[in-house]
Amino acid sequence: MYVIMGGTGHVGSAVAQALLGRGEQVTIVTRDANRAGAWRAKGAAIAEANVQDVASLRAALRRGSRAFLLNPSADTSADTDTIERRTVANILSALEGSGLQKVVAESTGGAQPGERIGDLSVLWEFEEGLRRQSIPAAINRAAYYMSNWDGLLGAVRSTGRLPTMYDPDLAIPMAAPRDLGEMAARRLVSSLDDVGIRYVEGPRRYSSADVAKAFSQALGRPVELDVTPRSKWQEAYRSLGFSEAAAESYARMTAVSVDASFDMPDDALRGSTTLEAYIRGLVAHS
Questions:
Q1: What does the DSSP assignment read for 243-282?
Q2: Are strands 2-5 and 66-69 parallel, antiparallel or unpaired?
Q3: Which helix (H) or strand (E) holds 198?
Q4: pLDDT single digits (tens) 94-109
Q5: N or C, which terminus of the chain has less Cβ within 10 Å?
Q6: Do residues 2 and 26 touch, judged by C-beta distance below 8 A?
Q7: Own/partner pairs, 25-32, CB within 8 angstroms, 24+ separation
Q8: d(CA 52, CA 91)
Q9: Beta pairing class for 174-175 and 45-48
Q10: H or E segment to which residue 4 belongs
């Protein structure tokens, strides 16, 4: 039995689907079992647990022999770094006494120690905590999610402009959630020797200019880039409803990623979904 955290989200659901496609037994961990009815229809079991409640999460993890771990994103209207550090600590605590044979954890490219740099430091702390405990842990450092562009489809449709904080020509690793899920599923079913950090990205690297072009092709209309200057990044996040603390963290995370030119190792695991195919699917199903 494989226990999947985040099974109702982009990546967790892709992990679950990949495992079910292999004929494996899957338990979906969710805060609200009523949201997981579709998984029951696909043959998955449901475990109701809250990442804020260590006992309930440990009980859910004890239902399987291996687990996919994902730290949930905090509400951006709150202090995201503080909340996400707390949920990382809760997940690590829940592993104690879980009886798991192996875990696969979703992290991020560029993970590193620091303050107020969002997922980069929060997930680095997650990685470090996993290294210190006894259960064999495989860690996937994921590229920039192609699904991060999903929320901009409405604006692109109505204005013909794509907002971005990245230089138009800066090519960065990106990956479709389906491919991230498939790679996590592969490591879940692999041997206990398959541990440690691997990077996961798509078939090639893409710039924001490539994203604009993909939207243009899918929508059949011109799409121009609207580049936000660095001095306006924090203000831009606040305009989206982010708290002051979250806006600072996200702006600093963006700056650190850009200044370091992102994490781009040569031996990354590569999915097959192109950006163009992903955007076509997004437009077709919206």
A1: -HHHHHHHHHHHHHHHHTT----TT-EE-S--HHHHHHHH
A2: parallel
A3: strand 196-201
A4: 999 999 999 999 999 9
A5: C
A6: yes
A7: 25/1, 26/1, 26/2, 27/1, 27/2, 27/3, 27/60, 27/63, 27/64, 28/4, 29/3, 29/4, 29/5, 29/57, 29/60, 29/61
A8: 9
A9: unpaired
A10: strand 2-5
Ranges in the chain, pLDDT < 50: none
The answer to whether 237 and 246 have CB atoms below 8 angstroms apart is: yes
Contact predicate 276/174, CB 8 Å: no
Q: What tokens does 151 get?
A: 């929320």
CA separation for the pair 190, 188 (Å, rounded): 6
Distance of alpha carbon 45 from alpha carbon 95, whole angstroms: 20
Alpha-carbon span 251 to 235, nearest angstrom: 9
110 token code pair? 């560029």
The amino acid that residue 132 corresponds to is R
Tokens of 152: 């901009």
Residue 37 is predicted with a pLDDT of: 85
Show the tokens assigned to 39. Answer: 């998984």
- Residues β-bridged to residue 104: 68, 138
Confirm if 92 and 100 have CB atoms less than 8 A apart. Answer: no
- Per the structure block, which two tokens stand in for 146? 């192609």
Which is nearest to 143 in space by CA: 102, 180, 178? 180
Helix (H) or strand (E) run with residue 218 in it: helix 208-219
pLDDT value of position 263: 83
List pLDDT tens digits, range 14-73. 999 999 999 999 999 999 888 888 999 999 999 999 999 999 999 999 999 999 999 999
Please state whether the predicted TM-score (pTM) of the whole model is above 0.85: yes
With beta carbons less than 8 A apart as the criterion, state whether 45 and 26 touch.
yes
Pair type for strands 174-175 and 144-145: parallel
